[in-house]
Amino acid sequence: MNEFEGRFSPEVELQFRQWKEKRGVEGVLFDLDDTLISTTELFRQQFELFFEFCKNSEPHLEINVFRKKFKELDDNSYATHGVSLEKFDMIVDALCKEYGTESFWDGLYIIHDIYNISPNIFEGARETLDVCKEAGLRIGLITHATDRWTDIKLDTLNLRSYFDHVKVVNIQQHKHKTDIHWKEAIDSLGIDPKELFAVGDSLTGDVEAAYKAGVKTLAWISPLWHIYGRGNLSEDVYIKVPNIGSLIPTLIANG
Ligand SMILES: [Mg+2]
Hints:
This protein is an alpha/beta fold. The chain folds into 2 domains: 10-37 and 118-253, HAD superfamily/HAD-like (Rossmann fold), CATH 3.40.50.1000; 41-116. It contains 10 helices and 6 strands. Bound molecules: magnesium ion.
């Protein structure tokens, strides 16, 4: 960076470098969805459009009841289907059976459209990546999505150049992101897990998985989908961060 354009002052940049030296951190591995970019917001937006479509097809439908049923099915599907595309077939099938109609199938494209759209980047995400880059860290990305959707996000948001390595854990092949995937991403980044810090919003798929892969510096971003707040990892193992914009100041404050 030729000149400082971000929100972090030179003092914060210096403190972050000192933090990095003290912790012996050489690299950082970020989750993407709901860590750097606002993916749940995109899901909610498309879900609302789908609910509207269904209400138009079946005018007697009470949208609040319908929304609640949909959310229950969506939450429950995580254990059985992960975040695969097929989970929406299962959800729409269940809703069609419950309401005695086939018309909801015609709105499924609204949900599938999610995978053609890039979510917005969170405030402070780009500045956080800049500070990491400026501090000389190697930066990796580990994302649970599809190759195509990842390309759309990275290209639309112009994020690709930040990353020394991008690992896509394909949602169609793997229901959940695990320590095996984190291990593969860490190896590809070429950094000892003890010299890495990991950042993600899924307590199980990011923080616990990275911990199992040997990462000792862990930051958990408050999840926007409550399902990602489920986990068994002891709270003293990781640093809790409300959002990506407060990651750097929180790390510095924690020493
Ligand atoms: Mg995530």
